[in-house]
Amino acid sequence: MEHGGNVIDELTTDHREVDDLFARIEQQLLGDPGRRELADKLTAALMRHSAVEQRYLYPAVREHVDGGDELADKEIEAHGDLGELLKDLEGRPADDGEFDHLVAKLKLLVCAHAADQEQHLFPRLADACSGQDLDDLGGQIRKARRTAPTRPHPFAPDNKLLAPGAGLVDRLRDALTGRGR
């Protein structure tokens, strides 16, 4: 969770961690309760990632990248779809008939989103920002990750406004239920 690079390094490392969680889910036998535990870890990682992108990455894209408003709006729309899928997946046991379908759908969405960012958005941001700006954003993301939500809140109007309070409540719920250990 704590990486130590600029904004692009931070978010790319998040992408690799999420790829690893998908692979670990797929390695488990169908219906194995371990798949549910890994799905909870995946959900927490994706929610933290989404919240920090909305709070720091997309405002920077709007400010520095030509056509940034359109790019950020497209990315934020994808986050809404992500939240709905994660909410559908939340709490479903691994042997539920929809569990594997939702994980597969989630993987397609997340992998396409990450690939698009890495191939198009990140290079444009790197060209538009100074190294210091990218490093500063990386530091802000590391700090914000500690308080970001770990559960889906698809009906919240904006994850960046929701993040601090919801993150605290989510972490309390996680501690009480043992989720994500």
Automatic annotation (TrEMBL):
Protein name (database record): Hemerythrin domain-containing protein
Organism whose genome encodes this protein: Streptantibioticus silvisoli
InterPro entries: Hemerythrin-like (IPR012312)
Stored Pfam families: Hemerythrin
Domain Hemerythrin-like, chain residue ranges per copy: 7-125
